[in-house]
Amino acid sequence: MAHSRSRHPKLWPLLTGTVRYEKTISLYNQGHGEWVNAPILAYLVETPNGRILYDVGCDHSKVNDPKLAAKYFNPDRPDSNMPKVREDQRIPNYLERLGLAVSDIDLVFLGHLHWDHAGGLCDLPNCDVHVHAKELEIAQSGQDHAVFASEIEGSDSWITKSAEYEISPGVHAIETPGHTAGHMSMLIELEHGSPVVLCGDAADLQQNLDERIAPGYCWQDNTAQALASIEKMQRLASDEGAELWPNHDFDFFRKQAAFPDWRD
Asked: Cα–Cα distance between 71 and 63 in angstroms, integer?
């Protein structure tokens, strides 16, 4: 039996895979020749009104089936290795360890639609999906080559928004475009700790935040928009006393509570 929902949000970071790449992918025009091993993260948020996933990681089959891997990933790409996803890192397995099933997820909130954030939807059929309208528009146009068309099939039924909004009590969608056209971060108000901003790929690394460096890839090379989003998150940190959680930083991730522990 699934455990009951808490009266206040709880937050679990989920390690859904890893990928090794040249640091310049995370830092605009910096980090050439320096490689990092990065976590591919999703986050489970339990609220009084339901359970939310922020991002869902990769499609396990595209990574582990040799034919699919050859189709979707370029083994000769000079700045990135193949991602790695173990069976126990798939989201249904994390849910099972908490006494939950996929049917216990009420909403999937996709910060953006790149393959390492949206691919895991294949493991979460029939969930309501939220995404920024601009993000979906660009993905459907085929202009963003880090979006796999097969992973946005059925997206006409998704719920799109064009502004910031409260997803659930204490959980807020924050517009942070730059890395992609409609990137969204998430602000979570916790009972016992500081609020948390899940930066998504608006800030891959702590270094993006500390040194105000745009992500390595910016939509239409608009670094000014990406930097404005970093500054916006920093204002949230200052005004709300919030922690900013970068999305692909193993050093930062390892400082958080290890699953199945949570933040609340």
From this structure: 10
CA distances from 228 to 14, 190, 222 (A): 28, 26, 10
Alpha-carbon distance 248 to 243, whole Å? 16
CA-angle at 29, arms to 27 and 32, nearest 5°: 85
Q: Cα–chain-centroid distance for residue 137? A: 19
Beginning with the edge strand found earlier in the chain, give each strand of the sheet holding 159-161 in spatial order.
10-22, 35-47, 50-54, 107-109, 128-132, 159-161
Q: Is 174 strand, coil or helix? A: strand
Tokens 């928009």 map to which residue?
A: 225
pLDDT band with cut points at 50, 70 and 90 for residue 77: confident
Q: What percent of the chain has pLDDT over 70?
A: 97
Q: Computed from CA positions of residues 25, 245, 202, 118, in that sequence, does the dihedral angle turn out positive or negative?
A: positive
Q: Which tokens in the block code for residue 147?
A: 């979006």
Give strand ranges (E) for the chain: 10-22, 35-47, 50-54, 107-109, 128-132, 159-161, 165-168, 171-175, 184-188, 196-198, 243-245
Q: Is 45 helix (H, G, I), strand (E, B) or coil?
A: strand
